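Batch 3, record 17
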Amino acid sequence: MVPSVIGALLITYLIAYVIPTDPVRAWVGEKLLNPETLESLRKKYKFDAPWYEQFTYLVAQLLSGKLEDPTRGVPVVAQVAERFPVTVEVAIFGFLFTVAIGIPLGVLAAAKRDSVIDLAVRVFALFGSSMPSFVLYYYLILLFYVQTQATLMAGVPTPSYACMLKLASFKDQVPVIGAIAWTVGQVPMFGAAMCGEYSVVADTIARMWLPGFALGVLAGGFIARVVRNSLLDALSSDSVLFAKARGLSSARIWRHALKNGFAPIVTILGLHFAGLLTGAIIAETVFNIPGVGRYIYQGIRRLNFPVIIAGTFLFSIVYVVANFVVDIIYALVDPRVRY
Amino acid sequence: MSLNPLFKLSELALDGYVKVREKLSPGWLDKNRSKILEWKLTLYALTASKTGSSGILLVSITLFLAAFGPALAWEPYDVYPVLVNPELAGKCPYPPCIGGCRGMPAAGTDVFGRDVLSLVVRGFRISLVMSAVIVVASAALGVAIGLVSGYYGGAIDEALMRFTDIMLAFPGLVLAIAFSLTLRFSIRSLLLSNPALTGFFAALFALNPSDAPNIANILSLFLALILVWWPPYARVVRGSVLTVREQGFVEAAKALGLSTTRVLLKHILPNVMSPLLVMVTFDFATATLSSATLSFLGLGPQPPVPDLGLIISMAGEYFPERSWWVVVEAGAALLLMSLGWNLLGDALRDALDPRSRRSMEVRAKLKVGA
Amino acid sequence: MSGLEERQVLKARNVTVRFYTYAGVVHAVTDAYLDVYEGETVAIVGETGSGKSVFTRALTGLIEPPGKIESGSALFRRRNGDVVDLLKLSREDLRRVRGDEISYVFQDPSSALDPLYTAADHIVETILAHRGASKEEAFSEAIQLLRDVAIPNPELRAKNYPHELSGGQKQRVVIATAIANKPRLLIADEPTTNLDVTVQAQILDLLASLKGRYGMGMLLITHNLGVVAEVADRVYVMYGGRMVESADVFTIFESPAHPYTAMLLKSVPDPTRKIDKLESIPGTVPDLIDVGPGCLFAPRCPFAKDLCQRQTPPAIEVGDRHVVHCWLHAKR
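Prediction for the assembled complex:
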């Protein structure tokens, strides 16, 4: 994992310092600043310094969270980190819908191979991978929000301030469990649930089910096909033949097939979750959700370079960590893989 | 023999090609008979399936519109009717209406008063050229890296694959966004100092050559995507090279004194062709969607360029009551394009699958030559 | 009339299996037959593609679409004395027979064992599928079985996953699951082909001793004539999905009646003699798609006559329980 983190830093460095022909211009954006200000910025961000100084400066700034937007004096990394829990919430909803749609369909398609259901799953997967995401989001908003008012479209329900204080004090009092609870509680829905503020939870569901459903529709077909193929491979394996030859019941044979079939799927689902986190930019923009994705989008629109840098760095780290976690989960699932 | 008109058409084209080659170099037919039979079999498999024929249909429509769209479009894209006709300003975007629209287009207009359908027809060209350039360039880059890496092995392989893995470990969209932003500054200055280059790209995209910043945006967009797109190709090709290397005929070729490039091109590459072709076809779909997504985010060309992603993005502000038709029409165009490539890719993968080919061979009863 | 002789365990007749594929109808097995008696080892010999695996799997209905058991009967005497036709049993009844009264051992233990289940898991679930024991009882039985198949440290090995075991150990685990319910018939499909030569001998010895102890009949499928000579009592030779010869093991080796059998025996080199040229059978294995009448071996047979191409030879008795399908032995 460490080489990947270094790689993330390197690529961020490339983007921030190396590729732009005039980095200071890029960082400052379209704003017009007088020459003295530009000069002091050049010194501060070390644009004229040799590359190793630049690199260490950038790394220090990123990792300590002090990286600033030069035109606004705002600590960018902190802003990004603040919005991250909301993005996690969206990703969780998307993941739940993907799994709820994709896995049952995949199992069904494997059980009834070459039937109408199998064909329908193929078509569904095809549409999921051919439909532009933002188009689908607009279509669904048209259907559910405009015509039927079935969902909210603004803001994110959050737990009360008192609740967050309670969680923070819990973290300070109880060692390990407190820290875990506090971390989980940062996601608004879970924090509210832990404090018993169930109206917030209900509001969250009303707010998030549509983007979650949209994400699920897009990816569900793909997951269904993967599940179907993996299960069919498992069902035609020699160990399933041996299980049949031993006279095991149909249910037990399916247990063997499912266990073997799902091992590779765990990896795919893990990576899919990481993809949901990093692909949030589009969904948050269209559904107007104040997460990291929308923040980055606004940064793009306003050509706010530091925001892009911080956002890219964060998403890269998320991806690297997610890959690592997936590897660990796979090692737990498959006894052949042990480090 | 299949009565399939699509197959008959493509078989005619192939036979024609064969005749021409034979005229140019007599004896070519006999030497390549089995290869031509294999091509015919692929064509048969493709046109026989429903996925294949619908894919071919949609892709043909895409290619046709991409080639002739700008000529067929009935409205210029860089003229804003609301500026020409100020009283339209409050009324636009104007909803679609069939018959009796008092001079307004039947398909509805965008916020500037332009006919949406005309814009969409123009948009095919931009989408196709962008996806074509991205896929072909990244495939070429990835294949080259993969060939070199797999063939030479050792330290070169290690270094290249490390680099590829790092690139693969990152979320592509995010990286593309960042690259695109940084590159556009550099490219803008490059284009502004090089009018000939600007003119060339303007013709390619059917855009106004004086619109250099926009062209720079487009270029930075697909340069960014190419940088992010090549790693999978490198991996796949390197894998194939390694398998082929084991098979000994590479050593034989080297022993016969063939130069490295010859070995790579004539012996290794043909073995990689099938999976590569399928990958490229699917990637056309993905590239169409990705470039549209980046344009939607504002990283692509700016108005008045009729990029489909951009059109939808602009319509987003007035969504839904005042611009749903824009999203529907432009979105449908993107959907159909990707669907076509995906269907073709699916059919191609099945057609090139060795198992189904053998069984089809008997049923098709194909012939080559006189 | 039960149709089975006194000590007979299995009597299969006219078994035909066809596969309906893209490329045509594959006649995998045609009019195959088999007799197995208590306590004996019967070997089925043939090249790859001769239909021996398909035939033995068809006996307990282990054929999946596009395969179809077209016809035939397989009389089997169950533990309780009942005689049933396996090919006419319901799916549920067949499931009960498999793993309990008829067990299988397959060629590749690495792929037969489920990598996510331990050795004991396999044995325990086979026991619980057919008998109402408790998990603890089944587990201790499993340990005992592992001991019976000569795996050292069975308590430890029971909790091992397949990838932690050697090839020979894996096959022993497979055998342990096969004998867990004391079956009447053990069908071993190339049980030693994937193993080291030294381990091969151990496994064969193990099978022989288990057969004696449990009083099972054993059906051994192999293309290795050396193994046949070692362990078999009677031999069936298959070619192109049909039976071509059957006799006791001595007769087969000393006076084979079918040209194919003879050529098979000749192609095994004698390590004590110096030879200049390896003998082989010219030609290739027949294509079993859309097969017509006539002897399938005719194209490769040095004695082939016109009649051989036109008509399939019937079963002809040439000695005591020595049957051959060849026009050469037909009485005019």
